[in-house]
Amino acid sequence: MEQGSLYTHVENNIATIEFYHPAGNSLPTDLLNRLVKSFNELSDDNKVNVIILKSEKERTFCSGASLDELLSINNPTDGVAFFSGFGKLVNAMRKCKKPIIGRIQGKAVGGGVGIVSACDYAMATEEASIKLSEISIGIGPFVVEPAIRRKIGVAAVGELSLNPAMWQNAYWAKEKGLYARVFDNTKDMDKEIQILSEQLASYSPEAVQHLKRVLWEETDNWDTLLSERANICGNLVLSETTKKALQKFKNS
Q1: Is 2.170.130.30 the CATH classification of the domain at 5-186?
Q2: 17-32 confidence digits (pLDDT tens)
Q3: What is the DSSP string of 133-183?
């Protein structure tokens, strides 16, 4: 199973994390763990004042959970461990002392929408449509739902998750609060991300860190909450209905 790649670069107090997986920038356990490690390390790096999160290629920002790994799960322990990876990543981004700017160049699905939601500020292109498809395969977006709900509200989460086949475009996502800005092309988006990241990097690190803590108030229970949600998903993924739906999806 290919594990994908992860690169981190720091320049002028700005860190860039770039991930890639050949299967639509999906996130197997190894890549999830490496992302968690990167955010934890950069959070304590005094040379870093702001973080940019991006993925490689143009068409998909993140397609969520690794389909091959989901199909390989055959016991509750492995199931809970896999979905806990998404919970740990969301929590690492939440707890990170540095503001995280999301560069969303393409579609985001399921867990990918959760990762976007855990960014403190996200810019996107018109290609950055989103959907939550989990309920259609018998799981549900339970682990990432708190992060998504925090950004777009309960009604919008319901609209996405109860109509799992429907894509919502980038302007819908902006209207709901997931994206701060939407651009015609990546060139314009990258220019604005550079401007914003340089501005944030020039501000008082202490003030920015205090602001981030304020913005994430009332989420202190997420360590427990996301663990409980991972248990739900870890057991649902073992059902025969889910296994058949996953295989059908893979073969389509």
Answers
A1: no
A2: 999 999 999 999 999 9
A3: -GGGGT--STTTHHHHHHHH-HHHHHHHHTSTT--B-HHHHHHHTS-SEEE
